[in-house]
Amino acid sequence: MEFQYLVPAVGSLAVFSWLAVATWSDNRRKEREAFYRNDTLRKIAETQGGASVALEYLREEERNAQKRRREGLKLGGLISTAAGIGVGVFLFAVLPDRPIYFLGLIPALIGFALLLYAYVLAPKA
Questions:
Q1: Contact 92, 101 (CB under 8 A)
Q2: Cα–Cα distance between 120 and 114 in angstroms, integer?
Q3: Between the chain's N and C termini, which has fewer beta carbons within 10 Å?
Q4: Which pLDDT tens digit goes with each residue over 46-105?
Q5: Model-level pTM?
Q6: Which domain covers residue 121, as residue numbers?
Q7: Would residue 124 be called left, alpha or beta, if left means φ above 0 and alpha means ψ between -120 and 50 degrees?
Q8: Tens digits of per-residue pLDDT, 106-120?
Q9: Residue 121 belongs to some domain of the structure
Q10: 40 with 74, same domain?
Q11: DSSP state at residue 118
């Protein structure tokens, strides 16, 4: 009976070790990306007339980043809306005599808000 605390201890040690390695590798990847990006910009700027090309490169990167953010908002809104509808339907099927299925409106309305922002309010390219 001495082993009842062994599984939670080993499990928590494994989780926190994994988190440390994942954080370290993510930071390392970001550093490499920044290094290669700066190296590319330096090489572009060193060419003849490269300053304007480098500025165009930076503008294109910013446009791509904005497009990725907008697409991520759209995807998050769709997933949240679908999850809210699914939760509402599930709760209605489980407890049809109680109005608890309205809890599905919370994620659905969050999803609608994300979609509204992505399609109407987000800055366009």
A1: yes
A2: 10
A3: N
A4: 887 778 888 888 899 999 999 999 999 999 999 999 999 999 999 999 998 989 989 999
A5: 0.69
A6: 65-125
A7: beta
A8: 999 999 999 999 999
A9: yes
A10: no
A11: I
